[in-house]
Amino acid sequence: MDRKRIVMFFGKKRKEPDPFWDFGEKRSVYYDFFEKGLALDLEIFLANGKETYKKGLIFKNILKYEGDKIFKKISKEIEADVVYDRSGGTFFPSENISSKVLNGIEFKRLCSDKFKMYELLGDNYMKKTYLVEDVEMLRKVLLKLNSGSKYSLKPKNGLGGKGIFFGFSQDLLKIELNKNTEYVLQEFIDTSSGVEGIVGGLHDLRVVYVNGKIVWSHVRSPRKGSLLSNVSQGGTILEISPGNIPEKILEKSKLIREIIEKKYGKVVFSIDFGIEEEEPFVFELNDQIGFPTEKMENKELFINELYNMLLSKI
Predict the structure, then answer these.
(1) Domain extent at residue 168
(2) What pTM value is reported for the model?
């Protein structure tokens, strides 16, 4: 019987022969993922760059994992049984192959659109959010709101904390918006009171779901003088043990997971929360989940549940 084939697909071309050389403390965990594939008697491949994708589940000029951190270049076309998509954006997958991909295109579209997230979750989970198509619409919305309150202005399809502004109405009206970008205006989540027993100030608390289970959690804190907790923006990260995740976060996470799974089925995703006066509010949902670091205690659970999901799609 032929061995089943799993392809991990990155939209960005990665360097060879070690495609994970720049992943720091996550590098060994990516290799643990590939070693697990071999242990399960799977053929496991790495597709680097959009040009490696052809059509359907077919890839060409990709890397086959041989073990011991060694990849072998395969020039012929390979048809995957299932794809673990790390490509970002919404160019992949098409609707007709979404059932064979983690994650399907509809869920990726949700996670690439901050206003769609708000429409799905509503005021029970997120702060009041408004769609802003241009400067004139921003002005009209702000004139209706409390000028003494603080707001965040984010690109509707933004990633990595880029292009986000914070301020009062008079501050945001001075901002020169990108004419080709839609934004969302959201009531500010004041996280300065921290999370009891975990972090003392500004934060972004992430809960990661794989196969319907919380597989790990961490809190990110911004660098001094910043409100952005993204590691790419200089933030720091601290893992939270499962037993230390705040009860209110667990309760809201469970309800959000049920909303998502009812509409999209089981998917790999994270929820980013900010706690304001002991009440959690959702910053955003994410479909592209970076791996835990080698020092994080739940890295093995994360990998095992990924494979449980991948194998369920074959």
Answers:
(1) 128-187
(2) 0.93
Cβ-based neighbour number of residue 193 at 10 Å: 14
> What secondary structure does DSSP assign to 125-172, as a single string?
TS--EEEE-SHHHHHHHHHHS-TTSEEEEEETT--TTTT-EEEEHHHH
pLDDT tens digits for range 227-249: 555 555 556 889 998 889 999 99
**pLDDT given for residue 176 in this prediction:** 83
Gyration radius (Cα) of the chain, Å: 20
Residues of the chain with pLDDT under 50: none
Cis peptide before 93 (omega within 30 of 0): yes
Number of domains in the chain: 3
The pLDDT of residue 235? 67
Q: Are 130 and 141 in contact (CB under 8 A)?
A: yes
What residues contact 273, with CB distance under 8 A and at least 6 apart?
A: 204, 205, 206, 207, 249, 252, 280, 281, 282, 283
Q: What count of other Cβ atoms lies within 10 Å of the Cβ of residue 178?
A: 9
Domain co-membership, 151 together with 164: yes
Is it true that the peptide bond before 17 is cis, omega within 30 degrees of 0? yes
